[in-house]
Structure prediction request, 191 residues.
Amino acid sequence: MSQALDRTRSAVLGVAAGEADSLKAAARESLRRATDAFGAQTESALAARIAAAEAALQEKNRRAVAQARREGRLQALAARNQGLDEIFARAGQTILGLPAELRRDVLRRWLAECDRALGGEVLPAASDRPALAKLVAEANSRRSPAAQLRLSDRDAPFSTGFVLKTDAYEVRRSLEDWLEEKKRELAINLG
Prediction:
């Protein structure tokens, strides 16, 4: 009986060893598939993270380049404006240094451009008061009594020119305003 038992035991052990080998092979295959799936999933997630990081880096780089360009344009604009300011400051000084008769001609022209049908009060710049006193008297000789100009005791708030105040409007004619207007006109072309 011992032989039959040994044979049965051997047969059971053989079947068990076969099933164990089969289970081990299945487990190995399952582990290999899970490892491959995990590796593919990890590789895919890593690739997505790398792509996102590269995209973020490219966007950051694009923004930095755009910011640098903006700052460069602003610096160029500031340098251009500073240059314009210096040029027009020198031009203003040159104009102020012109002979009195040339400045008087400019004041005469500015006064003549004002509406002849309306009178008003002329506030002269302190430096132009003597010239404008004569010019107002000259202009009044060609104006109707209702459209006469009066020279104010008050001064205009700039270095040369005048303010004409009427009942309907106010006209400012000054070297500063004229230079600012010319600077704005030129600034567009210098862009």
Q: What stands out?
A: The chain has a mean pLDDT of 85. The helical segments are 2-96, 100-112, 129-140, 175-190.
